[in-house]
Write a structure and sequence with these properties.
Blueprint lengths: L7 E3 L8 E5 L2 E5 L7 H14 L9 E3 L1
Antiparallel strand pairs: 1-4, 2-3
Amino acid sequence: MLTLGETFHNVGSSGGPLLIFDYFGSWSEANGDCLVPLNDALDSVAQFLRTGKPDTATVVYLPD
């Protein structure tokens, strides 16, 4: 299980354009190569709920 203060990023698979988003008033960016298709992201969420770890065959997180 993750503790406060640890951050991770997804190594992704889609190689798409830069994604810019507003997260609770803080602008953030994600490189296109860190983005994953929606179904892969949902599989990662389900894996996290089952095991406490979000990594799947298509979604892998690395420490920042």
